[in-house]
Design goal:
The protein has 10 helices and no strands. With about 220 residues, it is mostly helical.
């Protein structure tokens, strides 16, 4: 096996190993992938790989953490792009579809892991959904005056719409991505827009959009 033993900064080497591991796990799945495969894909010796990660599970969890952080960042950025709630819904659903359609295939670690029986994996997947729901719930609570528990329930439901529909789309859906995310955004907006803005929130927003951009009236 040819190896690339060129010395590089630790963080740069770690990023290289994570990229190689992502490709191997995506291609083979967790159980079929071996540390030898990952070392070969990265062009390093196996001892070098073990200098950075204690085990295959340790490496997988590092990748999963990276993917979860990226999804939370995408949703947070989507919520911050506008004060218009209809556009926020579109941006949030788009974040899920952008994640699943990315060539980086990070979504498979979250949505299609073959290691869901591992408690550390289940905990991280639960946590990423919870973190995203907290961010959405904060917007709902501020705008509608609903209590936190009610807002969180609505938020986790919206996360479910984005998560499940995007997973279905990438595995089986023949609908073009732009149309798919617009359809799902329209569905989500029709539901959440039934909870009226408080007077203060209405003044802040100036107006409440009746539907996401480009939605056709039935």
């Amino acid at each position: 096996m040819a190896t690339n033993m060129t010395r590089m900064p630790r963080e740069q080497r770690r990023a290289q190993l994570l990229d190689a591991a992502s490709q191997v796990f995506t291609r083979k799945g967790y159980h079929a992938a071996a540390m030898d495969d990952i070392a070969e894909a990265a062009g390093v010796s196996k001892p070098v790989l073990y200098q950075h990660f204690n085990s295959k599970l340790d490496l997988y969890l590092a990748l999963l953490d990276q993917a979860c952080d990226r999804l939370v960042d995408l949703v947070s950025e989507a919520l911050a792009t506008t004060d218009d709630n209809a556009e926020r819904v579109v941006a949030t659903m788009t974040a899920f579809y952008d994640m699943v359609s990315s060539e980086r295939a990070e979504f498979r670690l979250i949505f299609e892991s073959d290691l869901t029986g591992e408690s550390a994996v289940e905990e991280r997947i639960w946590q990423v959904n919870n973190d995203i729901a907290d961010r959405i719930a904060a917007v709902i609570a501020d705008d509608t005056g609903l209590g936190w528990d009610q807002s969180k329930l609505l938020a986790i439901s919206l996360v479910g719409i984005g998560h499940v529909s995007a997973r279905y789309w990438v595995t089986a859906g023949p609908v073009p991505v732009a149309e798919a995310r617009q359809l799902v955004s329209n569905l989500a907006w029709r539901g959440i827009s039934g909870f009226p803005l408080t007077e203060q929130a209405g003044l802040h927003h100036g107006h409440r959009s009746s539907r996401p951009a480009h939605q056709e009236e039935p």
